[in-house]
Write a sequence for this structure.
């Protein structure tokens, strides 16, 4: 009933103004009209529902679906609690179904896809049944109450379907994993491999009539869809190109100009007259790998650079006695090492130590290959065949040959081709199949553009040019859809993802890097290095994978566990010590190492250019200078096990003189306030990895295999390194100057540093330690080792793919890459040719990583965004979309192949429920 307004039943009088009365009449009229409209609308709806079966069905379906996943699910839970025997029977069926399908179905193939399709079809039928039955009841309903009853029944059916599907899937997958674990444990790696091969051979053999018929159907369908797509797809316009000679001339000219521009201005130019700005400090990666530049601008090698700085003392220093404090007084000691002397070590007196504490000089005639002495004939630890010195000699020699096959001109041309093709492709590609970047990269990209807009001078380019070039290269190669870049991006994301997962499992509320732009990769140049994430300046990083390592892509991918995201941003950010911890934790590690090595607390070493430096101050300063690299080695090993040390060994052996890992490094004013070159000594880095394996095995409760691996790694360090008693640090300030540290003094530092890095509670981890977030090493190692054995088996038969099906949900991408390196080493140890096995294993890595491109179950990134231009070219985009849709049938087949076991468990649960209610005649929806 409408509202009543005062004055609407009165005539204008002495006390009522005409205007007030008129307004009241208008308001009353509007109220009556509103009431009439509401009554009419209600009558219309009731009339429509009463007279139209379609309207009753629409109302019932709307209500039923809406309430199905709320009230319906609640009813399903209540019903299952009230009928425990029935629920247990359905779950038992699901568990058994998961076990049976894991036991008898192949890992992949058209037969499995058919099984998945049939199970999915039954699920669709069972899910649609309550909607269909409820719709019939609503259609025949006489009033609104009947429609509500139909909707309620529908919601209960939908709820029960969802509940049974979810619980059945969960329990079925538990059964599937139970059967998988049983098969692997009962048969052992070799037996399980044979079982997988036999099952695959039975179901997917061409001689199997079912498989043969299904393959023919799938092939016919694919062919028809491909032809239809080609007929619909718009024809692309191909622009005319220059002659090949004109192209070559232009490319060579541009490459030469690029090489003369800024290529080396970001690296140290040792021995050159040209000065390099030290604020901000330039990238040092090129020097550590390739050494300094000669007069012609060519890098002479790291070992050769040290030899040049030491001069005639190049080999003498390996065996020379340590120069103790008090022997010589330098004229002008540098200030770089002295500030910490009082703070970290106190006022130490000149050591009075017996001469037998220090090694006596040994007269050794060093061979001309750059190594000093010969490796011990009898290793202290018995190593497995794959870790013997000759194996690493073969791998590093092959790696050296592959890298040297790319001369600077070839690399420059290839890099330039990517640079010019990218923007040209972007202009004509209206529908990118490979998105440039996820939305999360908008911020760093805008930051980079802002930096580029501010460039005014040549000096500006020297500071930021390489940064912009590397990010631009990553963007262009992503735009081009370079397969290697896509796969590198997947593994780069995975290195960060495993740490994010570890932080979440450790209960850290705000994991670092969660939601941060994952590092992007580009291929080019000759050096492994990262343009790091610079918080607040460029909130995104890019890692360079050398062009010369493309043919080593599988085995050398684990290097990126060390490189990815920037040395000063990934592991170092997680493991960053406070200023106080630098003094206490690192100082404590040094103290413990000095005690173990029996170094007197007041001992000092004479460092040319710096004076008498207390040993504790010297050791601490070295660790601070190398903190990012050491932390990355620890973190990389903690994730990949042997991936970091093995790739380090093969790579550095391929670069060092005589194929021997260095026991020497450099120091000087060229390295700024850090004084020392940023990388640990080659040999010592292997000891850091060995200790990381040992500590992680201990943290996992002890693992004999990993403990043996740690011992083998330490022996590998002895077998593949230069000989001598000392670690030698050559001065880059004055030729011939050096100081030496006995190995027996410096080696114990690795053990105590790793222990401190892994166990210290960290602010960045909310009081947790690295030990709390790194993956379980024994479990990781077993997966890596098992997959490596399968690769070796396939390579021995000359295959480029695994002989057994591969389930990407069983292995993280970084485990695939680490297994690839291990497989190359094991294949060579078994007598396979290192060049041929490398080619097979690289192609295996390609095929396995390609599977993650179609969906990475371990992804931590955001959903990709596609750039559409429908408004500009609607017909072209529409035709391209229709053409692409013809490929959906293949995608659906692959989906049902992957999810067959899940669908099977769900369908089995639903079938058992249907059987129970058919024979008991009990309507569960009314309970």
């Amino acid at each position: 009933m409408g509202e009543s307004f005062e004055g609407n039943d009165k005539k204008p009088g002495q006390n009522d103004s005409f205007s007030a009365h008129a307004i009241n009449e208008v308001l009353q009229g509007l109220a009556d009209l509103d009431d009439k409209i509401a009554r009419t609308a209600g009558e219309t709806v009731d009339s429509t529902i009463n007279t139209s079966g379609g309207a009753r069905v629409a109302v019932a379906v709307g209500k039923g679906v809406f309430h199905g996943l709320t009230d319906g699910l609640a009813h399903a839970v209540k019903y299952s609690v009230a009928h425990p025997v029935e629920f247990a029977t359905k779950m038992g069926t699901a568990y058994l179904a998961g076990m049976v399908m894991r036991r008898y179905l192949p890992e992949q193939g058209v037969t499995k896809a058919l099984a998945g399709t049939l199970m999915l079809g039954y699920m669709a039928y069972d899910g649609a049944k309550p909607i269909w039955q409820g719709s019939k009841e609503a259609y025949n309903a006489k009033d609104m109450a009947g429609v509500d009853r139909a909707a309620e029944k529908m919601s209960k059916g939908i709820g029960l379907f969802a509940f049974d599907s979810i619980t059945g899937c969960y329990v079925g997958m538990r059964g599937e994993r139970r059967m998988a674990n049983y098969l692997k444990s009962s048969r052992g790696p070799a037996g399980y491999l044979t079982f997988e091969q036999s099952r695959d051979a039975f179901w997917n053999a061409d001689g199997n009539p079912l498989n043969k018929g299904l393959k023919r159907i799938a092939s016919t369908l694919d062919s028809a869809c491909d032809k239809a797509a080609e007929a619909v797809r718009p024809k692309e316009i191909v622009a005319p190109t220059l002659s090949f000679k004109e192209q070559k001339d232009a490319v060579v000219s541009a490459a030469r100009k690029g090489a003369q521009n800024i290529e080396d201005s970001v690296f140290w130019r040792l021995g050159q007259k040209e000065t390099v700005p030290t604020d901000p400090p330039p990238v040092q990666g090129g020097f550590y790998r390739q050494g300094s530049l000669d007069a012609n601008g060519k890098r002479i090698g790291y070992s050769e650079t040290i030899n040049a700085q030491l001069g005639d003392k190049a080999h003498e220093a390996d065996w020379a006695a340590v120069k103790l404090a008090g022997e010589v007084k330098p004229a002008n000691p540098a200030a770089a090492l002295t500030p910490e002397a009082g703070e970290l070590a106190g006022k130490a007196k000149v050591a009075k130590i017996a001469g037998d504490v220090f090694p006596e000089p040994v007269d050794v005639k060093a061979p001309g290959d750059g190594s000093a002495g010969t490796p011990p004939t009898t290793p202290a630890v018995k190593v497995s065949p794959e870790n013997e010195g000759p194996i690493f000699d073969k791998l590093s020699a092959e790696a050296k040959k592959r890298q040297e096959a790319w001369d600077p001109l070839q690399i420059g041309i290839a890099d330039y081709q990517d640079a010019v093709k990218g923007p040209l492709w972007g202009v004509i590609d209206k529908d990118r199949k490979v998105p440039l970047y996820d939305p999360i990269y908008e911020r760093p990209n805008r930051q980079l553009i802002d930096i580029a807009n501010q460039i005014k001078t040549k000096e500006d380019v020297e500071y930021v040019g390489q940064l912009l070039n590397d990010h631009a290269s990553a963007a262009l190669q992503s735009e081009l859809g370079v397969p290697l870049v896509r796969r590198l991006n997947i593994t780069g994301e995975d290195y960060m993802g495993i740490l994010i997962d570890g932080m979440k499992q450790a209960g850290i509320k705000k994991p670092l890097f969660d939601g941060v732009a994952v590092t992007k990769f580009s291929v080019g140049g000759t050096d492994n290095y990262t343009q790091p994430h610079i918080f607040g300046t460029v909130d995104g990083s890019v890692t360079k994978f050398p062009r010369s390592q493309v043919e080593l892509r599988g085995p050398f991918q684990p290097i990126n566990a060390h490189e990815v995201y920037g040395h000063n941003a990934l592991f170092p950010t997680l493991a960053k010590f406070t200023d106080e911890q630098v003094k206490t934790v690192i100082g404590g590690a040094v103290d413990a190492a000095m005690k173990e090595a029996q170094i007197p607390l007041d001992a000092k070493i004479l460092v040319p250019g710096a004076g008498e430096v207390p040993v504790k101050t010297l050791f601490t300063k070295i660790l601070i200078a190398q903190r990012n690299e050491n932390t990355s080695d620890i973190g990389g090993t903690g994730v990949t096990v042997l991936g970091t040390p093995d790739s380090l060994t093969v790579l550095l052996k391929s670069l060092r003189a005589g194929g021997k890992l260095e026991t020497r490094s450099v120091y000087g004013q060229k390295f700024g306030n850090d004084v020392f070159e940023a990388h640990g000594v080659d040999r010592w880095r292997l000891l850091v990895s060995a200790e990381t394996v040992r500590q992680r095995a201990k943290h996992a409760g002890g693992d004999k295999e990993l403990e043996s691996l740690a011992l083998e790694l330490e022996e590998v360090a002895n077998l593949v390194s230069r000989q001598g008693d000392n670690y030698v640090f050559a001065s880059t300030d004055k030729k011939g100057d050096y100081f030496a540290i006995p190995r027996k003094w410096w080696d114990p530092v690795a053990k105590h540093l790793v222990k401190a890095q892994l166990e210290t509670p960290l602010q960045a981890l909310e009081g947790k330690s690295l030990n709390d977030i790194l993956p379980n090493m024994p479990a990781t190692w077993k997966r890596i080792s098992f997959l490596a054995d399968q690769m070796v088996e396939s390579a021995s038969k000359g295959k480029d793919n695994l002989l057994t099906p591969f389930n990407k949900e069983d292995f993280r991408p970084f485990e695939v890459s680490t297994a690839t390196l291990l497989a190359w080493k094991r294949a060579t140890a078994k007598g396979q040719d290192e060049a041929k096995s490398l080619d097979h294993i690289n192609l295996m890595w390609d095929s396995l990583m390609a599977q993650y491109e179609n969906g990475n179950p371990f992804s931590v990134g955001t959903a990709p965004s596609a750039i559409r231009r429908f408004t500009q070219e609607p017909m072209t985009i529409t035709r391209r979309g229709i053409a692409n849709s013809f490929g959906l049938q293949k995608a659906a087949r692959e989906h049902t192949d992957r999810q067959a076991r899940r669908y099977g468990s769900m369908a089995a649960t639903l079938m058992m429920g249907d059987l129970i209610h058919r024979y008991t005649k009990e309507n569960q929806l009314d309970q």
Summary: The longest helix spans residues 144-204. Strands lie at 520-523, 529-531, 542-545, 604-607, 611-614, 664-667, 726-731, 738-742. The longest strand covers residues 726-731. The chain has a mean pLDDT of 76.
